[in-house]
């Protein structure tokens, strides 16, 4: 039975899947926070802040995620920065921070697009009604931008789930890591990796379906 | 049409028989389209070439084969297919009927596809370039993953250096800087070739691709 090997090594496959899910969910939450903050920098009226925002996006989008992960996991402790004293905790948190920072750059671009897509007339109207810059942002721009960015954020979420596999390279015991261990113990490479593939698909395919539905429902006609 | 000629279709064996035929139809179609697409693409590129000695034979191929009945090609390969390949595969070679059919169908279809591709390819390429440049930067970043299976790429070389000198901070910053310069330049170039003439539908689809498949 394809996938049956998962029940021979439940700790490695389902335990690994659980780590992958945790890393995905927490990583996405982190990426949303980082991304929104960077997007606000990118649309701010202050030029140095805008530059800071673009520099962040360009740096994180144009370097490989693995390089960033290695830096967070190996480089930072040498600079005296550890995410946790426990080695395993440190690795997981380094991966989590890496996922958030890297995908945050993509989220920032999407949120910025959503903010810029709002008619300037609305912003001017809000300002002339006496709302402050921050009030306009909070009451007028962000709620509308949010609606427009949900489908593209779903696409980022799918990319993020797949990218969590890279965390295995720094030793996070995720799904791919589990499959690699099973392979090295049993030499049943096809079964191990096919099973891992099916479990990844069990996450990404429903996610993709949800994104497609949202895409149709939330389509903002401009 | 006598009334007693219909009940036979309740027999599953009849449907299995039809099913076998349908399977041949489907596999023939898929194989022919796949082969025709590759061959058609090559000849379309040939027709777009600025070199006459490439362009003319390609044009001749397309124009000649479009003008021939496809049944003629199929029958020809059914009869002569085996002997055509004997100089290559030896005197015992028998071309399976299926592949003789694929050959005949593909020869004709590839000419038609070549013509279709020839007409739309220049515009399609122009539309594709920015998105493909984006994918190129993704590929460059993704190459850093092959270190895990023991290929000594840029990142892997860096890892060798810092395990010797114990300076991962410095090494990884330099490695990141090198990747950054290459990918940043490419992404700026692709932005220059902006998507302004791309239809809205295609633009939406490409942004989706960029996020789902290039955020890696």
Q: For the record, give the distance between the C-alpha atoms at the N and C termini of chain A, rounded to a whole number.
A: 50 Å
What is the quaternary state of this protein?
heterodimer
Strand content of chain B: under 5%
Provide the helix percentage of chain B: over 70%
Describe the fold and architecture:
The complex is a heterodimer of chains A (222) and B (216). Chain A is mostly helical and 222 residues long. Helices cover 80% and strands 0% of the residues of chain A. Chain A is globular. The model of chain A has no long low-confidence stretch (mean pLDDT 90). By secondary structure, chain B is mainly alpha-helical. Helices cover 79% and strands 0% of the residues of chain B. Chain B has seven helices and no strands. Chain B is elongated, with a radius of gyration of 27 Å. Chain B starts with 11 loop residues before the first helix and ends with a helix. The A-B interface holds A 58-59, 61-68, 70-71, 74-75, 78-79, 103, 106, 110, 151-152, 155-156, 158-160, 162-163, 166, 169 and B 137, 141-142, 144-145, 147-148, 155, 159, 162, 168-169, 172-173, 175-176, 179-180, 183-184, 187, 207-208, 211-216.
């Amino acid at each position: 039975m394809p996938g049956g090997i998962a029940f021979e090594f439940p700790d490695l496959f389902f335990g690994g899947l659980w780590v992958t899910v945790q890393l995905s969910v927490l990583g996405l939450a982190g990426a949303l926070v980082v991304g929104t903050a960077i997007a606000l920098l990118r649309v701010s009226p202050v030029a140095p802040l805008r530059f800071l925002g673009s520099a962040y996006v360009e740096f994180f989008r144009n370097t490989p995620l693995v390089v960033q992960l290695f830096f967070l996991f190996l480089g930072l402790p040498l600079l005296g920065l550890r995410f946790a004293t426990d080695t395993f905790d440190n690795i997981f948190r380094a991966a989590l921070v890496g996922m958030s920072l890297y995908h945050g750059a993509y989220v920032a671009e999407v949120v910025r697009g959503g903010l810029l897509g709002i008619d300037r007339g609305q912003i001017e109207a809000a300002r002339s009604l006496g709302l402050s810059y921050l009030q306009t942002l909070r009451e007028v721009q962000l709620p509308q931008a949010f609606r427009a960015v949900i489908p593209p954020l779903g696409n980022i979420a799918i990319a993020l789930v797949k990218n969590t596999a890279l965390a295995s390279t720094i030793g996070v015991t995720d799904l791919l890591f589990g499959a690699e261990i099973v392979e090295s113990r049993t030499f049943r490479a096809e079964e191990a990796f096919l099973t891992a593939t099916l479990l990844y698909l069990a996450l990404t395919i429903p996610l993709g379906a949800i994104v497609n539905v949202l895409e149709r429902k939330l389509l903002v006609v401009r | 049409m006598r009334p007693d000629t219909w009940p036979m279709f309740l027999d599953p064996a009849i449907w299995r028989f039809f099913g076998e035929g349908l399977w041949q139809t489907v596999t023939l179609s898929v194989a022919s389209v796949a082969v025709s697409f590759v061959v058609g693409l090559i000849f379309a590129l040939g027709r777009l070439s600025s070199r006459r000695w490439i362009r003319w034979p390609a044009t001749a191929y397309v124009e000649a084969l479009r003008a021939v009945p496809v049944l003629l090609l199929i029958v020809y390969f059914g009869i002569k297919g085996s002997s055509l390949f004997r100089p290559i595969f030896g005197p015992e070679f028998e071309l399976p009927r299926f592949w003789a059919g694929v050959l005949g169908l593909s020869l004709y279809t590839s000419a038609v596809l070549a013509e279709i591709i020839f007409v739309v390819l220049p515009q399609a390429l122009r539309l594709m370039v920015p998105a493909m440049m984006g994918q190129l930067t993704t590929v460059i970043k993704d190459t850093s993953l092959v270190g895990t299976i023991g290929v000594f790429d840029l990142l892997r070389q860096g890892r060798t250096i810092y395990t010797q000198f114990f300076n991962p901070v410095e090494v990884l910053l330099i490695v990141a800087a090198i990747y950054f310069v290459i990918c940043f330049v490419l992404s700026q170039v692709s932005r220059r070739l902006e998507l302004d003439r791309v239809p809205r539908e295609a633009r939406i689809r490409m942004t989706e691709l960029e996020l789902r498949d290039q955020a890696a």
